[in-house]
Amino acid sequence: MDTKFKITKNENSKISEVDFDNIPFGKIFSDHMFTADYKDGEWGNFQIVPFGPIQIHPACLALHYGQSIFEGMKATKSYSGDPLLFRPEMHATRINASARRMAMPEFPEDVFVEAIHAIVGLDQKWIPPAEGSALYIRPFMFANGEYIGVGPSDTYKFVIFTGPVGPYYPKPIGLVAEEFYVRAAVGGTGEAKACGNYAGSLLPTELAKQKGYDQVLWLDGKEYKYVQEAGTMNLFFVIDDVVITPATDGAILKGITRDSLLAILDSFGYKIEVRPITIDEIVKASKNGLLQEAFGAGTAVVVANIDRIKYKDNVLKLPVPEKQKVANFLRNEINGIRSQKKADEFDWIVPVKAPEAIKA
Ligand code: COI
């Protein structure tokens, strides 16, 4: 693979400062980042540069009107030490779905994938070796027009940086089903990875934390009845041996981990239902002793055990993590595929092919 990227290598690597046995999520950043600019109707200025601050104008449109989107992906190491990507094309496609919804220009998918190979190839020593850890990859795009006015920008910046991460939720988490605030309504931006979706979730999440819970379980914005997702992750429930996840309806993120878990469950012959599910059905199943598990799925969280769900006066208690068999099975499978300890029958794993020019 040849590269059309201009590369400036970081001569002051910070890797020796990192304790790879103790990695917090999202606070450590690798040595390089990829940047590109959209101007005069096209993307160009493809560069790999040392990781560092980006200068922006005070009138930068993204800061004022929120025209900003992102992706989250992971690179892992195989058991024999080779750097691997997980479904990179799907992330390239999804960021462009987000771009279309937010009236932003699409980013060329071949350049997206090539840039991921290049940046991960260059910083592959930053991929933590422990299973369940990964190099988190954060592609994002924002409007950087320098003027005041509500309308799509005519210039944009696209950036990819990476950083080693451990588990997003090291412990099982509790959710509060939200009865007032709404994450997304059908027709809104809930299906896009739009930054504003996350901003709007912060206050309700803080309120959930004040009640002793970790995250919000979002209900639909019309009837406050149907389960959507938890903002940081899609949701799955095991009721009477059937694994159920809400059908995406335009207001729920089309999670790539969600899609992958459904494929794994299907291939192992689990009973699956992808359909609207109400919070009342979950409460009823819990009261009848049929709610066996609840868990979240996402790139950052992988598979997160849920131990409590609060809805009105009900507090549903879930079995201890060791007994959440489906969640634990899925975590083990997906981590196993990502380390190549398990066969990748779905062709999700893509070995990193760094351009010759940047081989470390
Ligand atoms: C991801 O799973 O990659 C996300 O973007 C969600 C966020 C909680 C980190």
Integer-rounded radius of gyration: 21 Å
* Distinct ligand kinds: 2-OXO-4-methylpentanoic acid
Low-confidence segments, ≥5 residues, pLDDT <50? none
Helix content: 10-25%
- Count of the separate structural domains: 2
* Residues in β-strands, percent: 25-35%
| CATH architectural category of the largest domain | 2-Layer Sandwich
Main beta-sheet annotation:
9 strands, mixed
* Overall body shape: globular
Structural class: alpha+beta
The CATH topology of the largest domain comes to D-amino Acid Aminotransferase, Chain A, domain 1
So, the CATH homologous superfamily of the largest domain? Aminotransferase class 4, branched-chain amino acid transferase, N-terminal domain
Which CATH first-tier class of the largest domain would you pick?
A: Alpha Beta
The count of strands amounts to 17
Measure the end-to-end span: 15 Å
Number of helices: 7
Mean pLDDT, to the nearest integer, reads 96
